[in-house]
Amino acid sequence: MNATMRHLLPLLLLAVIATGCQEMYDQPKVKPLAKSDFFSDGFGARQPIAGTVARGHMKLDDQLYTGKAPVGAATPAGDSGAAAVPSQWATSDRSWTFPMPVTREVLARGHEQFNVFCSPCHGKLGDGKGMIVQRGFKAPPSFHEERLRTAPPGYVFSVITNGFGVMYSYASRVPVNDRWAIAAYIKALQLSQNMDASQLTPQQQRGLEGKK
Amino acid sequence: MSQIFHRSSNMMARLSILVIGGIAMGAVFFLFAYNRSDYFTNVHVAREQPVPFSHARHVGQNGIDCRYCHTSVTESNFAGIPPTETCMTCHSQVLPDAPMLEPVRASFRTGKPLEWTRVHDLPDFVYFNHSIHVAKGVGCVTCHGQVDKMPLLWKTNTLQMDWCLNCHRNPEEYLRPREHVFDMNWKLPAGENQTELGKKLVKQYNVNVHQLTNCSICHR
Question: Are B122 and B214 in a shared domain?
């Protein structure tokens, strides 16, 4: 062992100890969305193999995943509200019903998700005057115009799912049940903006004026 | 035979012990200070990114919710970095020709992801989970600071273990009502006391405080 080696040895030891620590910090595992040299495309996250379906992700329920009316479902033409349905929706194959019961929880969830994902453009009132529109995005129609106010919930759902015009699809960002919850909230929002205030109970009218 | 050491050597010996001890203590102090310094931890250091994405613009001025882009934050350990499609949802229309956004458009055309520089990078032996923190009332701002005021993102906390333990030992000092987790500007309502509110929330959200300092809560 010569003099240089004697000097280098402690340094080498230190280096080994120090890299040991660093390896604990950066372990050879793939964290979400991290790069990977193992695969030729460099993606750490893998795509499902073409033609395969993950367990529990088979889209068997047509109404739930597409917003189409279930086969043999009644259209509102048979209901008392028939007169309110303009002809353009009379022949629509979109669902007039929801695939789940619309409870207060569903509406609350829809409200929350609507404010997160829809309000940037559509505005919190659904009037199409959101902040991004003010930044130059093409203004969407108000939810409170006749055509959209009378649209079936399945139509609202399929627009969120597939996009429309310059609006991208939100299917990859908003889970299917949340998309239905948003559709339910939008229908409620439309109702709230087109209600004759005199039809409300006195207590609700006081609420409108901001009193309890 | 004369004395080898002069009388003053006694003094010198004592003094040298003091000086050596001082240097050793100083070195320890320096290491501790260095370990916590912004220089070492990158706290308050804005990182360069492939596109100069501004949270100040998107969150602060446009009012976009955290969850619009970080979609998995409520369900998963990973908050989620948005795919380029999310950027293009607006930028296909807003600033569609801005040279600054060319890397985004290129990524959208080619399918090659943008490679962002990670700002909050925990050591791999820490198993942090976003969803549980969000569910138990830890506000985004509590750990990430006012990102709505950051043109380029920086860390406002060291993310070192002693910092985590501040809250894991006394969560009541930091929790807020769940519905205000994503609120950038939530303030304790006037007349309320954080400790009292926190204790109420700890109980309401079933936070098992005695478990929070178990090693296996964060390490496996």
Answer: yes
Q: Residue holding tokens 């995943």?
A: A65
Within a domain: residue B141? Answer: yes
CB contact under 8 A, B124 and A173: no
Question: CB contacts < 8 Å between A and B, how many?
Answer: 58
In this structure, are B27 and B130 located in the same domain? no
Interface TM-score (ipTM) > 0.85: yes
Interface membership of B95 toward A (CB under 8 Å): yes
Minimal Cα–Cα distance from B101 to chain A, Å? 16
Residue A180 inside a domain? The answer is: yes
> Residue A91, exposed/middle/buried by CB under 10 A (0-12, 13-18, 19+)?
exposed
Closest residue by Cα to residue B195 from B178, B212, B170: B170
pLDDT digits (tens, 9 = 90+) for A76-99: 654 545 555 667 788 888 999 999
- What does the pLDDT look like over A35-89, one tens digit per residue? 888 999 889 888 889 999 989 888 999 899 999 988 877 666 545 455 556 677 8
- Find out whether B127 and B77 touch, Cβ atoms under 8 Å: yes
Structural domain count of chain B: 3
B64 touches chain A (CB under 8 A): yes
CB pair distance less than 8 Å for A24 and B124 = yes
Residue B175's domain spans which residues?
A: 55-81+118-218
